[in-house]
Structure formats: structure tokens, C-alpha cells
Amino acid sequence: MRLISILSFLILLAAALPARAQSTDIQKTEAACKGGNGHSCFILAYMYETGKLTGKVDPERALSYYEDACRLKEYTACFNLANNFASSRFKSGKGKSADYRRAEQLYKIACDGGKGKACYNLGYINSRFANGAAVAVSYYEKACRFGMAEGCLKAGLAYYDGVPESQGQGGAVPKSHKKARELFQKACKGGLQKACL
What we know:
CATH architecture of the largest domain: Alpha Horseshoe
Helix content: over 70%
Number of helices: 11
Strand content: under 5%
CATH class of the largest domain: Mainly Alpha
Number of strands: 0
Distance between the termini: 31 Å
Order of helices and strands: HHHHHHHHHHH
Shape: elongated
Number of domains: 2
């Protein structure tokens, strides 16, 4: 909520202030970022990615600021950066597979930092491309613990049907209707109507 209000304030400020004042605000935010304020780095990354405050889109600067913000443990920046690599918005120069590997690394940082959507995305990546069902379910459950109803549902579905080792590519998911029901209830309480029994 704090992030949304700060971004909203900056966007409104940009519309109301002359270009010279905007330049001063950007300089102050850049100084704060260089001083180790990860949130300031994240704001700059967002501004350069969207061009909303600076007037132009600058992917290279956005990438640099997102990386700085992520390094400074601004986990939303890690998540946004991962999304950009996953969508190949920022090219690594090493081909698509390097972009996806980088996205996976960044999602892991964001997930470990408490970003449920990053955990959910790791679950998806592991179920489709990487380590299989058991690892995917562990990430879906982690997303669930961070309040992501979709993660609860995905994990619940895996437990409801179970996934044999032969299909699991990295471990089986045991069939457990009890565990599935608990996860479905969490998903329902999280507002996901299709999970309500």
C-alpha cells in the first residue's frame, strides 16, 4: 500500500511540477538510491521502465536500477526484474534460455523475500520446465503461506489427485484429500471462489 501511495504521489507530482522541479526530484531520488535506499532505486527503475515521470522509456537504465534495488533487498524490484527477463523484455545477449534462468534466480530471491506471486511463478516454472511436480508444489505451498490464493489452489489440486513419481520428474506428490481440502479452504478464504467447496 505504501508503494502505491508513493508512486501515485510521484506521478501526480510529475504532472503538477515544471520540468526543472521534476529534474531536481529525480536527482534527489538518484542520490538516495546511490546512498543505498533500495526503494528509491525501485522508483527510478519503474520511472525509466514506464517513462511516466521522466518522459521517455529507457530499458537500460530501468534494468540497472532494478538490479540495484534487488541487490538492496527491495523484493518487488526483484519480482519486476524477473518478469521482464521472463518476457524477454531485457535481453541478456545470451539467448532466451539465459533470460529464463535469470528470471528463475530473481523469482527465487523475491520468493525468499516474501513475494507470494514470485513463489507462484517458481511453481509454474518448475511444473512446466524444470524440477517437476514435487518442487512445484513446494513453491505453490509457499505462495499460499504468503497469502496467494492461486498457490493454495494449485497445491491443493496436486494433492487431491496426487502425482506419481513417473510423472513427477523429481519426486512424487502424495495423494491427500485432507491436505487438498485444507489448501482449498485457504484459497476460498483468500477470495478464490472456484476453490470453495
